[in-house]
TrEMBL record:
SUPFAM superfamilies: NagB/RpiA/CoA transferase-like. This is Methylthioribose-1-phosphate isomerase. Substrate binds at residues 55-57, 95, 202, 253-254. The keyword Isomerase applies. It catalyses: 5-deoxy-alpha-D-ribose 1-phosphate = 5-deoxy-D-ribulose 1-phosphate; 5-(methylsulfanyl)-alpha-D-ribose 1-phosphate = 5-(methylsulfanyl)-D-ribulose 1-phosphate. One of its GO terms (molecular function) is S-methyl-5-thioribose-1-phosphate isomerase activity. It comes from Marinobacter halophilus.
């Protein structure tokens, strides 16, 4: 029987695997409502990823892997290979920027291509999806250990973070938020300043909610207040996640990350990126090659149906921006740390 890795995760659980279905916590409704959506096939997982029911690069990849497993589980005996192949293609279209999605699907496709029967595919694809989930949780714990060695605080510190990179965005524990969680466990954390992260407000809806549930001191701030917080000397590190990291160390992450890196450098504050190696894309030379998802302008003009701007006004709404490697003090993965990242350091760890 395939086990549920979420039962061993630390922090809030974003997904629950049942073997024949996948439950996803609808993160669009947090913090006011905790509602689970059940996907019984790959199409349901595709919709949940595209609609941001589930978000965060690692969580997207894990969900997609389970989506492939569900495609095999429910495929017809006569045309199962075509059905699973089609599911993989549809899942690949769901979100274009998070490389974890394609990394996970490639792993699932490799297993699929070696299967000689539907029953074999259903069993092995489910096992591989669970393995991807378990590996992500283990990677998060390893990254927290590595990051603690980089920060090396002699007394408790405060940090600033952006978007949501905790258990909600991963297989459990978190990437950047996992580092923050570890600082808290070691009694080396005074406070977390969490950007609200417009326009989807992942910081206020998700990060503040997740940290509050785990009794980790958090102060929510408007994105525009980050400079004032840094200027005041309140924080020693900015710690963020990543959706894609290129061969030269450039990082695509939630829109607004680049601004934080510029501010941190001006104020002589450490800037750390924490992400699993599945986020690294050595096939792309630099950040200019990263496809940046553009979403509908309604997300800026409205919040949950409440109009904030003139109807029809033109909107620029990229989901991500690219932070140049030269503004990053450390990239932390489960494989190790790259300080002052560049193509040489990236190749040394990921060649």
């Amino acid at each position: 029987m395939v086990t549920n890795p979420s039962s061993r995760s630390m922090g809030t659980v974003a997904m629950r695997w049942h073997g024949d279905s996948l439950e996803l916590l609808d993160q669009r409704l947090l913090p006011t409502e905790e509602h689970w959506i059940t996907a019984e096939g790959a199409a349901g997982v595709v919709q949940c990823i595209a609609d941001m029911v589930v978000r965060g690069a690692p969580a997207i990849g894990i969900s997609a892997a389970y989506g492939v497993a569900l495609a095999a589980r429910h495929a017809g005996a006569d045309d199962w290979q075509a059905e699973v192949s089609q599911a993989i293609q549809e899942l690949a279209k769901s979100r274009p920027t998070a490389v974890n999605l394609f990394w996970a699907l490639e792993r699932m496709e490799q297993v699929f291509n070696s299967c000689d029967s539907l029953s074999d595919a259903a069993k092995r694809l489910a096992a591989e999806a669970v393995r991807i989930h378990e590996e992500d949780l283990a990677a998060n714990l390893a990254m927290a250990d590595h990051a603690l060695g980089v920060i090396s605080p002699v007394q408790p510190i405060s940090v600033l973070t952006h978007c949501n990179t905790g258990a909600l965005a991963t297989g459990g524990y978190g990437t950047a938020l996992g580092v923050i969680r570890r600082l808290h466990e070691e009694r080396l954390l005074t406070r977390v300043y969490a950007d609200e992260t417009r326009p989807w407000l992942q910081g206020s809806r998700l990060t503040a909610w997740e940290l509050s549930r785990d009794d980790i001191p958090v102060t929510l701030n408007a994105d525009g207040a980050a400079a004032a917080i840094m200027a005041s000397g309140k924080v020693k590190w900015v710690i963020v996640g990543a959706d894609r990291i290129t061969a030269n160390g450039d990082v695509a992450n939630k829109i607004g990350t680049y601004s934080l890196a510029v501010l941190a450098r001006h104020h002589d504050i450490g800037f750390m990126v924490v992400a699993p190696s599945s986020t690294v894309d050595m096939s792309l030379a630099s950040g200019i090659d990263i496809p940046i998802e553009q979403r509908d302008g309604t997300e800026i003009r409205e919040i949950r149906g409440i109009q904030l701007a003139p109807a029809g006004v033109e909107v620029f709404n990229p989901v991500f921006d690219v932070t140049p490697a030269g503004l990053i003090d450390a990239i932390v993965t489960e494989k190790g740390v790259i300080r002052n990242p560049d193509i040489i350091g990236m190749r040394a760890l990921f060649s």
